[in-house]
Input
Amino acid sequence: MHYAYSKKMAGTRDRALEAAVELLGSEGVRALTHARVDERAGLPRGSTSNSFRTRAALLDGVAAWVAEHEMGDFDPAFDAATATFDDVVDALCALIEAQANTSRSRTVARYALFLESVRDAELRRPLVENRHRFEQWTVSMMAALGAPDPDTAAGTLMASSDGLTLHRVTVDAGAELRPTVAMVLRACLPLGVAQWSGRACTGSFSGMAEQISDAEFSAAEGVEDWRVLFWGAKTLYQTGDFAMGARLVADIADQAEAVGHAPLIDLRPDTVTVQLLTVGVGLSDLDLELARRISQAAADLGIPADPSAVQQVQLAVDCVDRPGVMGFWKAALGYVPVGDADLVQPDLIGPAVWFQDKEYVPPRNRIHVDVSVPHDQAEARVDAILKAGGRMLGDRYAPVSWSLIDPEGNVVDVATWQGRE
Output
């Protein structure tokens, strides 16, 4: 009998608190009386006062209820320790969406309680404690992403999220969230992490970029100097000396500014290598336009291109537990994730690492090397490997790739862009 009574009381209390939050969110603090809560909850008169003897106790109960239920807005599957840039943007957008739309009344109630708590430290306590839990969660998330000052980054991100939530509640319920959240998050992170951030960050001015296929780029006029590889299009210019190379780089900078899109440039004593890529998009119309301009700038200086000399090397890791293995190598190399299967050095100087779900297949090792070469150089590269003592492991995917193995079981895949689309 005692158990049944307690259960009934708990149900009455929860109904009263839910109704109180709705009332507070729709009509404000002045509307919050025991009688109005009973009416809103459909409870017998006096039920709310049996659970909360005073109005102050009712306000305290509502504050604790709001704090408890807001923690449920988090996706339980979200892991702050392993989250990528895109994961974080998704989680924050979902959180703002829930608080500003799905649970709007509860959020408005929280705002009302915070204002009321200016004169009531006890009322403020559960709200502040709940915010502190949010802060700890955000700090751990920013630290895992590589923020140099996780505490400051967390405060900035929370302030921005609060502003977006308030804007949705009071001004525009359909206001777009993702661009602003991504912009603020990028500002909190080192340049490399922010640059390689998947779909959330698409590089310089890439919001105006239109994706084009590898085949479309390769077939376009004015890009005969260029070859499509892993991670964009690339060419090499034989400048002859450092001064001429620096002059070419200066001209490229002018063209990049005109287009509003920046290339990756490697200046050496007698060569300049240029790589074009729109991060989060792949190859775009901006890359095509800039490639044409760079080729013309080099031609104006009388500098020849040698696209046969370019390549892009990456390591490929076979794994069963891809997130676990990828996390290990992210920590070991200091790389940043691009999507859920690639790691890159932020400046793209070192080889990328690609992780593929694959069981162990003898005689292959678990790590092999991928070499992306110009499509018109692939067969020559394969022939050179065979002449050097290699053995063909498989060519059924050619011209996408040829797999070759050395005398001790180490594997290389020679790859091109052809056949991937």
Q: What stands out?
A: DSSP finds 15 helices and twelve strands in the chain. Confidence is low (pLDDT under 50) at residues 1-10, 198-207.
